Amino acid sequence: MSALVIVESPAKAKTIEKYLGKGFTVLASYGHVRDLVPKEGAVDTENDFAMKYSLVERNQRHVQAMAKVMKKADELYLATDPDREGEAISWHVAELLKEKNLLKDKPVYRVVFHEITKKAIQKAIKEPRELSMDMVDAQQARRALDYLVGFNLSPLLWKKIRRGLSAGRVQSPALRLIVERELEIEAFKNREYWSVEAEVKSGSKSFKAKLTHFSSEKLTQFSIENAEYANSIKDEIVSTAVGKLLVKKLQKKQRKRNPAAPFTTSTLQQEAARKLGFTTKKTMQIAQQLYEGVTIGSESAGLITYMRTDSVNLAEEAVNEMRNLIQTRYGKENVPKTAPVYKTKAKNAQEAHEAIRPSSAAHIPEEIRGSLSTDQYKLYLLIWKRAVASQMTPALIDGVSADLTCGNEHVFRATGSTVNKPGFMAVYLEGKDDSKEDDDNKENLLPPMKEGELIDLLAVTPNQHFTEPPPRYGEASLVKALEERGIGRPSTYASIISTLQNREYVELETKRFYPTDVGRIVNKFLTQHFTNYVDYDFTAKLEDDLDAVSRGEKNWLPLMKQFWKPFKELIDDKEVSVQRSDVTQEAMDEKCPECGKQLSIRLGRNGRFIGCTDYPECSYTRNLNDDAASAEPEVVEGRQCPKCESNLITRSGRYGKFIGCSSYPVCKHMEPLEKPKDTNVVCPDCKKGTILERKSRKGKIFYSCSNYPTCKYALWNEPINESCPSCNWPILTVKTTQRRGAEKVCPQQECSYVTPCEEMAKPT
User: Fold this and answer.
1) What's the CATH fold of domain 192-258+395-466?
2) Under 8 Å CB-to-CB from 723, ≥6 apart: which residues?
3) Which end of the chain is more exposed for a tag (fewer CB within 10 A), N or C?
4) Residue 695: enclosing H or E segment and its boundaries?
5) Which residues contact 551 (CB under 8 A, 6 or more apart)?
6) Average pLDDT, the chain
7) 110 contacts 76 by C-beta, under 8 angstroms
8) For the structural domain made of 265-390, what CATH number should be given?
9) In which residue ranges of the chain is CATH 1.10.290.10 found?
10) What is the per-residue burial (b if ≥16 Cβ within 10 Å, else e) of 609-646?
11) pLDDT > 70: what percent of the chain?
12) In terms of Cα–Cα distance, which of 379, 473, 547, 479 is closest to 185?
């Protein structure tokens, strides 16, 4: 007997063929072999949504290779990825081979495995199943929906806004998230508030405590709203305390902190973005490499389980292996009596799947580092640590709080914590998005004190604060928001984010998403005229329905009909009822200074600008951010263009003012209005340039190499000429936060060196 085995990737094919041995030929489909024909009518809405497929041209020779082997083979094993997409690819392969009459009287098996190990592959071959048409139907319905939205809504955007735009069933709600967050930030008005802090000393150790009650009243965030009141509180406390505070109450509590669950696709994308700075696309590419196999010595092995999963389950044998490793490597006391079991938070999670874990915990990251690229090692280390830590004992945190009083009416509170037993924290600690740092892994000890004891009051300091707007989305927080709302699926997040950037709807700057002018207008058009189709609940409900189809609980045809009829009616209506000027222009209460007609905010090739509504008769325009009075360019005194010797002038562009040549567009010389400040720190990456302080397009300060774009090394925090004592990186950076003050931090992701920066930490 001879058998043909079809997988998706050529990297997997070689490893699997070696595991199966004689009689098996393993070939790769190289992804999808068929797709909808790329033209109108590929989904026949009048004929039960019949789909017209064509061979993917780039994979034609791979299909021919499959057909050639299948002529002589006795059996076909379809071993594509264990998800809906993989199920559909298997079905398309089988359909193509049927069309060629190559499967007559030959058995066709579907085999599924979640890790590329010899044991897993051989077990899958022995336990085949039939193709799941429910999963295939769900994938076809998803593809048809995406096609119908794209082929009908995108041309409408071309007519009403400009050519080259696109809208997508999942892409558009994701854009809405980013635009709405930007509008929140723009509408935000910061509010002043104050806190009062005491510096106290017990024995030889000084520490700080925060005022929580004044004149017996509990203080809230906005109880102290100005400097005058804050200083009056300070004066009152200083005069009442006379240099001493009473230790009124001491509380000691011990709490447990449990480890995080092993990775799903979504949590891996989030954590790789936080800790490694990887994009979602890069994370998935590297995870695919680790899954498909890496050569270690003379052997090739898949290092992790399948990376597209929403389950947090672990196989029993994997758990047992990790428990043995923990006992050997970290001690018996770090192995819990019973193995922790995690419950997935994702709706409709496929619990039969496994979480992302090492295929064998015995592949210690440090021991196989030489067989991996730098990025492969970083991601594998993250996956290995997270999985192993998930099977360890909780951490025990000892917490102490002290209430310090004066006059029995004014209360300060000081808190401290120390790690009693690190447990899983000895291996791994989960990152956080846009929140104050979690200090559980930092020692923050208070000195020994007794209730009733008087301790020294060294100083009382009022501190000014302002409320801050919500943070813009980064890749990690955007993925988290999409998952929480049930928009799309984790396996699609990388392509959604890439599409938003490729269409220039958003820009990623200092790892944060900013909507472009085009992105804002597209979002405004969709939210006004296609409200349902960018609604988060509507999009999530559609995902739930597709999941129900994959489980055999719903039929896909009624779902398609329910979606299509109102959607098509809306498209036809907006084609007629919405004018292009309604979308791309916004009326202003201002007259044109040249002709007296109305001005409007308009969309041009380079973004939004202010222009006359009487265009083309009147060609008056100005930058959106300029006042009419300051529209005239100013000559830069004493300087000429280094290229053509014309005058240099200040000009206004899409991103603000800059210096440009007065002979533009004949001469296109331009330069920043202010020269970047040189920090005199040598770039640690190229070792040729120095680090300059620059401003981003949005006015944010960052630091980057003077040799840009040859060297793209960049930092968010100010660099200093000190090498890291831990990893020997040539520079450190100064990071300042409200909670922790100024600290010297190593900029290397894998190094955790942090130390207080005393000379910068003193309050002003």
Assistant:
1) Topoisomerase I; domain 3 (2.70.20)
2) 729, 730, 731, 732
3) C
4) strand 690-695
5) 134
6) 89
7) no
8) 1.10.290.10
9) 265-390
10) bbbbbbeeeeebbbbeeeeeeeeebeebeeeebeeeee
11) 93
12) 473
* Six token digits for residue 58: 């780039």
Domain with CATH 3.40.50.140 in the chain: 3-131
Phi/psi at 445 (5° precision): -85, 140
Backbone angles phi, psi at 3, to 5 degrees: -135, 145
- Delimiting residues of CATH 1.10.460.10 domain(s) in the chain: 140-188+471-578
Question: Which residues are within 8 A (CB) of 367 and not within 5 positions of it... i.e. 6 or more apart?
Answer: none
| Residue at 92: amino acid letter | H
Give the span between the Cα atoms of 231 and 216, in whole angstroms.
18
Q: What is the pLDDT of residue 630?
A: 44
Under CATH, which number does the domain 140-188+471-578 receive?
A: 1.10.460.10
- Amino acid letter at 299? E
Positive or negative, the CA dihedral 275, 281, 287, 289 is: negative
Residue length of the chain: 764
Sequence letter at residue 204: S
Judging by DSSP bridges, how do beta strands 670-671 and 677-682 pair with one another?
unpaired
> Shortest CA distance to 110 belongs to which of 140, 85, 82?
82
Tokens representing 188 are 């935000």
The pLDDT tens digits for 105-142 are 999 999 999 988 888 999 999 999 999 999 999 999 99
Are the C-beta atoms of residues 233 and 211 closer than 8 Å to each other? Answer: yes
d(CA 476, CA 512): 10
pTM, entire model: 0.75
Q: Residue 155 and residue 161: Cα distance in Å, rounded?
A: 10
CA distance 107 to 75: 5
Contacts of 47 (CB under 8 A, 6+ apart): none
Q: What integer is the mean pLDDT of 63-83?
A: 95
CATH code linked to domain 3-131:
3.40.50.140
**Assigned token pair, 490:** 């984790």
Q: Phi/psi zone of residue 332: left (φ > 0), alpha (ψ -120 to 50 degrees), beta?
A: alpha
Query: Which pLDDT band, with edges at 50, 70 and 90, does 656 fall under?
Result: low
**Which residues participate in catalysis according to the annotation?**
306
d(CA 557, CA 687): 62
Peptide bond into 616 cis (omega under 30): yes
Six-digit token string for 84: 């809906």
CB burial class (10 A; 0-12, 13-18, 19+) of residue 435? Answer: exposed
**Nearest Cα to Cα of residue 448 among 205, 630, 273:** 205
- Collapsing DSSP states into helix, strand and coil, what is residue 538? helix
Token digits of residue 538: 């509507």
Cβ count within 10 A of residue 273: 24
User: 3-class DSSP state for residue 392?
Assistant: coil
Q: In what order do the strands lie in the sheet with 670-671?
A: 635-640, 647-653, 656-661, 670-671
How many Å apart are CA 404 and CA 524, to the nearest integer? 54
